[in-house]
Amino acid sequence: MRTLCLTLVTSAGILAESFAGPAVTVFETTSAYHHIQVVDQDGMRTLSFDASTETRMSLADPLKGHFEYTEYFHMPWLWNHRLTNALMIGLGGGSTQRAYQHWYPDVTVDTVEIDPVVAQVAKQYFNFKETPRQRVHISDGRVFLRRNSTQYGGILVDAYVSNRYGSSIPYHLATKEFFELAARHLSTNGVLAFNIIGTMQGWQADLMGAMYKTMKAVFPQVYFFPAKGSHNVVVIGTMSAERVPLAVAQQRAAALVRSKRVTMPNFSNRVNAFRAEPPPNHARCPMLTDDYAPIDGLSRMDY
Fold it and tell me: Is this model's pTM higher than 0.85 or not?
């Protein structure tokens, strides 16, 4: 889980910050993959990898306090209203897993997490509970897919690595070959949802354009759900070739809420972030392949 929050410098913000309570580090270690910190402040618990924020959770209510973009991982219901299982690549503090466990107790979620220490931290500090319907596999996401034959109604990807350039998507999880592998593990109405740090126009727009072009080479339709409170965009790739406009997505959301198939608060509101138009720069952006995936360069381009 990774987010890049927008910072608004206002007199109210400065005042609020000056009265913030002390930050308490409740856990800190360095694993084979990350420098991991768990910090409590003002009733919120935060998980950080290598100084980048991964997960936020309310200590009073673990279902609250999460980052907005994680709620867009519920959008696969719009295309697959009979979702029975999902695969998530990346655990972090388990915001999406906790939500699925609570709101959809009949849905089985397999989570692939490469770092065993992260899995321990999620269980000990972020109220993540492993059950027969919430299973964690310690593995690389692409390796897991290659060795597994399960078909999923949804595949959710929220994985980032840190290097000398900062945080970036792992190369091998952002290529045409990866998306082809993922598509083979999706059911007839299956959906892939991918968290990308960037914007449709402006900062890291070339990364967004390249990811769109790459996903569109595999998935018949690709859509976007940009978060308002951060530079996170959840990109949706569908196995369905039907072109869905916003009005139809809203109708589907209303039907899911009426039938109580989806009971997550804010579901109908989050659908309004839906964007069907491709990034305006996508034509000039590269397609990412196993032989050519310049993620670092695309991530560093600012406009």
Answer: yes
